[in-house]
Amino acid sequence: MSDIYTGRVLGKHEATKVRQQLEKPDPKALEPSQYRPPKQRSLSAGERINPLTGQPELRTFPKSYGCDGGLSQPQFSWLSRDAAEQHIPACAEAGIAVTPYRVLESGLLTGKYRRGQPLPEDSRADDECGWLSEPDEAIYDSIEAFNAEADASGLTAGQYALKWALDQPGLTACVVGVKRIDQIAALMPGCESSD
Fold first, then answer.
1. How far apart are CA 176 and CA 105, in angstroms?
2. What DSSP element (H or E) covers 88?
3. Top-tier CATH class for 33-191
4. Per-domain residue ranges for the chain?
């Protein structure tokens, strides 16, 4: 068992403690996943060898515990859209779920960073770990354009960054790396559907 964010493998004692804290799923309450890749023509995605039986079987979509076609986590945000050109459409065609990370761009898309202002205290750029370097003028130009869109939407910058990402075709969910629990509650309005 490992930490999903750092990749650090948990020690035997830590892993046991985490497993004890997890709720046991009720097999009767499990529902099949509702994920359907946008361009997949059928529920079949080829064949695979079942690791338990050793027999060939159709690779179907969905499975109770997620996407049988796999999972991809590209970096993707309003500032970083490269994955939208080929990666995300290819995943959708292949039945691979896409859950991008850095949708808030390490805090750049939260409204905290302003041209001419000191770096926000307790921010990723203020940390000495090198997670984020101080934004340059071109990044500030992009942040200001983004903030204008967020203001027009009626959402905070962070909420808008999350909503913008979730509204993009081919995405299943988004990984949001926050430092504090209260930041999650502040982002929740960005998760509301625009349908």
1. 10
2. helix 87-94
3. alpha beta
4. 33-191
